[in-house]
Amino acid sequence: MDEVERIHTADPALRGYLEVAGALLASRGQTLKVGPVQHRLADPPGLARGHDRVATLAPPVAGAAAMFGANLAVWGEQAVHDGVAGRRELDELASHLAVVAGGRRAATITWELRQLAFQRA
Predict the structure, then answer these.
(1) Per-residue pLDDT averaged across 65-89, rounded?
(2) For residue 16, which of 42, 54, 63, 110 sits 20 to 30 Å off, Cα-Cα?
(3) Per-residue model confidence as pLDDT tens digits over 43-61
(4) Which domain does 44 fall in, by range?
(5) Domain count within the chain
């Protein structure tokens, strides 16, 4: 399995999205960064950890920003409803994500993914 360990970006729109997404998940007792949690869990019964490492993924930033924009369109109203973010804030965030997705602003984003593989013990 691959799960988010950390996400690095200096871009304010991408960081803003990650902050709002993280806050919405936290308000529901969840986390965006599942990798560290999985790393600390005991191996499932009958299975042994055969692989446990962090790998880096640096996708095209325009695609990441487009994905973030699409996600925001799906759960944005819930973030407003739950008081995690305001409507104006999310509208501005969507606009800035569209700029990055359109390649009109240089940015980078890098995921660190926890990779775990198990084998029968």
Answers:
(1) 97
(2) 54
(3) 999 999 999 999 999 999 9
(4) 2-120
(5) 1
Q: List phi, psi (to 5°) of 54.
A: -110, 125
Q: Using CA atoms, how far apart are residues 48 and 78, in angstroms rounded to an integer?
A: 39
Nearest 10 degrees: CA dihedral of 23, 26, 27, 29? 170
User: Which amino acid, one-letter code, is at 53?
Assistant: R
Of 114, 6, 98, 4, give the one whose Cα is nearest residue 55.
114
Average pLDDT for 104-111: 96
Beta carbons within 10 angstroms of residue 9's beta carbon: 19
Contacts of 84 (CB under 8 A, 6+ apart): 20, 23, 24, 27
